[in-house]
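Below: protein 1.
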Amino acid sequence: EIIKKLEETITAAPNILKIGVAYSNTSELQSVCLGRKEGKIYEENLTQDNYAKNLVNLALKNNSGWTELELNEAIKNYTSVFYMPAYAYGGKKTVGTIYVEVSLTWLSGKIDSLKLEKKDFGIVLSKTGNILYHPLNNLIYGQTNIFKLLGPLKAAKKNFEKQLSIIRKAVNGESGEGYTVARTGEPFWYIYRPVKQGNWAMLINFTKNTVPLNEK
């Protein structure tokens, strides 16, 4: 019955890479897990694997939450695992965890659906500034940090302090919008908002002609 429920869930959600249940049976860890690889769903044995053990420990300690983002080389994108406690009969004692590993490929679809113009674009940043989504895929694959990209702006004195301030506010969970000048000298409008599901930040730039507002 558990396998059937897990299979129904992973089949309906293409961004799920793994879904499973792990729990302690006396002194031994038991695990039921389904994974996805190259479009096919398979059963995976994680009973003696640290992957399942670590998730059980996180559920016991933190109740529920997301793991730190990791770059998955196979899919060329970041993944994170959401875990929550599995309770013993009666609902009082945590004996394990239910978990789902999700890829961030859905971010591309969400931002692409905004249908931004050619010079307009959106990016998504982790709390530490790592680029989770960017129109230039190599910045994602290279695990690029936005603060390192700003370095050349400081040397060239091209609006460095203002752009640094915008990025810092964004990754700290603040919201804002305004008008500034890119390193190319082109003026643009910007907006940034927190993505609460993952404690990330989303920033969108619009060129001056896209949003014909009063610059003052």
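Below: protein 2.
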Amino acid sequence: MENDDSAAQDELVSFEEAENIVINRGCVKFGNSVYQLCNVTGFTVGEFRKADFPLKKFMMVLFPGILLLPLGVGVVFLLWACLIYRKYNKIKQVYGLVIELNSGHKKVFASAEKDFLLKIINSMYQLMSSASDDKVVVDLSNRSVKIFGDAKGNVVTGDKNRVGEGEWA
């Protein structure tokens, strides 16, 4: 029964590729898809499990290599074992920006940089918690997050360092 549940969960997850994600007060757009924010239940950063080290394969190559080393053939096996080890160590940890929808579907954008994904989530939080009509544009190709519109907040003026409420463009 658990396999049926896991298969159903896998059907709800789709990996997306887009150059930009555009978020404004009312919707999220990426690629050819647009979702109203009222249909988005959350944005999270998920961590994809790195594949397990192929220990059985490594040992099946390493032990014959050690045993056949005196014959000279073992060098080939040992080099093969080194290649297996190096290939595994080149695999980077991958994270994903997960957009969860009311329907239970999840849209995932993969990245090796967790800090970049957290920056996206922080920008979305700022946008969603403000009353402005700003727009956040996430450029996945060059890993940048830009906020367009009027920024609102405290302004420090040069007049005896008084702090006043204000807006600036």
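The radius of gyration is 25 Å.
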